[in-house]
Amino acid sequence: MKRLLPLLAVVLLLAGCANIPLESQPAVVSGDKPGQVPADVAEPVAGLDPLTVTRQFIRNSATPGTANANARVYLDEEARRNWKPSQGLTIIDDTFGTVYDTSSSSPNPDEQVVNVRGFKLGNLSPDSAFIPVKAEYSQQFKLRKQPNGQWRIVDPPQELAVTDEDFALNYFRVPISFYSPDSGAFVPDLRYVAAKPQAGLPGRVMDLVLQGPSEGLKGAVKDLLGDQVTTESNVRSTDDGTLDINLTGVGGASLADRNLIAAQIVLSLQTVTLSRIRLLADGTALVPDHEYWRASELPNYNVDIAPNSELRGLMTVNGRVRSLEDGQPVGGPAGNGGYKVVSAAQSVDGKRLAVVEERDGRQWLRVGDLGHELASVDLFGGSLSRPTWRPVARGGGVSGEVWTVVDHNTVARVTLAADGRWVKAGVDATMLTSLGQITEMRLSRDGSRLAAVVNGQLVVASIVRTADSVALRAPRKLQERDLKDVVDVDWATQDHLIAATSSTSLPVVKVPLDGQRMDAFNSSNLTPPVHGVTAAPSRQNLVADAGGLWVASELGEVWRPQAHTVTDADPFYPG
């Protein structure tokens, strides 16, 4: 059902990487000459049969090491010299089969063909991002008995396959930060680096910063460094514990951009080092008069995308919008019954409200100031999904944007025009709508991504904006094999989602935005089916089931009744 990090994996990872936070997890970093097997890498034990040799090869392919030396020892001498595995990895389920191939039996008793079959969970792409995949895995290995009597692989595949457990043991998940000019926030891009040797982690992470955003995020964020910036020397720790990073190619970058570059680097490295960071550009301070940096010294770039703690959230109940804080209706027609409210969404700053109203046999969108009359927008259909808000842009410009899905197949947005009217604007959502019927959609509060429920599956896509267009790109189904019958989703943090399903066995789950794993919430006290969920940073997770509203802060925590629980309520936090 769910895939959790085994306890042994956590213990081993912490033992080898004492300063790595528990929450972080398991790209492939090469660079050594192929064909070389260091003296300290032991040969396999004698007498292994072909099936065991093949399984051991796969289990050791997850250890990057020196030129994949731990896997290379299972090859014959010629293959050891010539094998050059491609960048990236295929991650397969921990349970996989190895059987002798009977269809291609060789008359030579010293040769065997082994078929490997399993289930593919995803790929670690060449840019070190995890891409979820639902597919069968199969691969053939040809083995030959060597003059010393040992079986060795003679035709190793270029594409490495590793088990999910071994991937978690040997790779470390790092959120690389990239800047979003639209929201003024830094956006996490989940990437994976080899966990050992620990001393090299900062350098490997810095390499990913320099590479720019992964394919799944390109166009949705700004690459502050571009192709021209690199490091003049290796990232290294000095005798006093400082981490030295010397950039070159920054050139005529403005002071504002230099501060953003510094923030991007420091935020990206904060999960792999506690050291202060010395940032140089061509030998002098990257930011004048600010040579040394710590994450605690950075301004809060994400302050505008996090709901204020005083905004306790709202809910729709029997066609009206009420407060989660005291259960009372909000001001204006949305709360007093003037509109027959189907669903609603509050802006991140709390000042505006968007509602879907049922009127004349259709559903219409209304948007305006909370507590006041809401303007009817020329956007309607047989059904509109619950609205979701784009974050407020810094430095002027548009002050709000609302998205919804019309009739399950058209993604629409409305923006605030100069004359104060809310007007429709286009979204190229072809890549998303091609996957099926969209029943729910939530924009991330940093505005770079959206999460959607499509044919009962959880899907994430990036939002790419240009001067005159908005498009959804790189849609990816998360946990496609195990997560089904999804009915609602929300962003718990910038890189984690909370999803509700109609399942009795898996009603509420937490999933990272790349879908590399899934954790189930405690289902105690819930009365399936769950029909709604809302989440936000530093907020309790809130779900709605047949009995009312329930809150829990942690995965293992038992759900407790919300203070103003009521049946048939649909809760929502700002965003």
Count of alpha/pi helices? 9
What oligomeric state do the depicted chains represent? single chain
The whole-angstrom Rg is: 26 Å
> What is the mean predicted local confidence, pLDDT?
90
Taken from the alpha-carbon principal axes, the silhouette is globular
Low-confidence stretches: 1-34, 394-398
Helix content: 10-25%
Structural class: mainly beta
Task: Give the terminus-to-terminus CA distance.
Answer: 31 Å
Largest sheet: 6 strands, mixed
- Proportion of β residues? 35-45%
How many beta-strand elements?
37
Pfam family, one: Gmad1
InterPro entries: GerMN, LpqB_C, LpqB_N, Quino_amine_DH_bsu
Domain GerMN: 202-290
Keywords: Signal
What's this model, at a glance?
The protein has 575 residues and is mostly beta strands. Helices cover 13% and strands 37% of the residues.
Question: What would you note in describing this structure?
Answer:
- The chain is mainly beta.
- Strands 1, 2, 3, 4, 5 and 6 form a six-stranded mixed beta sheet that branches. Strands 9, 10, 11, 12, 13 and 14 form a six-stranded mixed beta sheet that branches. Strands 17-18-19-20 form a four-stranded antiparallel beta sheet, with no helix packed on it.
- Strand 10 and strand 11 form a beta hairpin.
- The longest helix has 15 residues, at 255-269.
- The protein starts with 6 loop residues before the first helix and ends with a strand.
